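hi! just following up on the protien thing from before. the input was this:
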Amino acid sequence: MRRSSSFLGRTEVRYETPPASELQRLLWIKPASSSHLDEVRPGIYIGDMYAAKNKHLLQSLKITHVLNAAHGKFSVNTGVSYYRDTNITYHGVEAFDMPSFDLSPFFYSAAKFIKSAVSTPGGKVLVHCAMGLSRSSTLVLAYLMVHEDMTLVEAIKAVAEHRNICPNSGFMEQLRELDQNLLGRSSAV
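and the predicted 3d structure came back as:
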C-alpha cells in the first residue's frame, strides 16, 4: 500500500503522511465500549491493566504472550514472575505516557515480539498499558506499519474499528516519523 505505481500511463495518488490533526479524527470511531480488552487484529489484543492482571481471563482467551507497555515499579507492575504460574511469555517496555517520552526506540523490539507471538501456532498477544489507549495502541500501530506494511492511516483505521485508541501527541508525531521513514524506504525500492 505504500508504493505508487503506473498503469496505462496513469499514476495512482501517492500517499503522504497526514498532519497529526487529521490523524486525530480517525481515532475514536468505535461506539463506546467498557471492555478491558479488545481483539484488534487476529491474535492481537489491546487492553488495560485490569485485563493484564486477570490471569483467568487471559487463560480463557488463550493469550500466550503479554507485552506490557507500562512496565515498571510505578506503572503496571507485572512481569515474568507475575505470570510464572501460566504459560505466558512476557515482554516489558518501561514507558511513560507523556508527549515528551520517546517511545520510538521500542517500536522495532515490540513489533518483533508481537510478530513472534502471532507467528507461533495458536499464539495470541495482549499489548497493554494502564488504560489501553496510548502506549499500547502506539506499539500495535508501529507493528502494523513495520510488519504488515500498512501506512499510519491504514493502521489507525484497522485498530480503531475494534477499539477506541488515543496515542498522545508525542507518540503520534513519532508514528508519523516512522510512517515517513517507511514510506521513504518503500519508494526507494
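Confidence is low (pLDDT under 50) at residues 2-7.
DSSP finds seven helices and seven strands in the chain.
cheers
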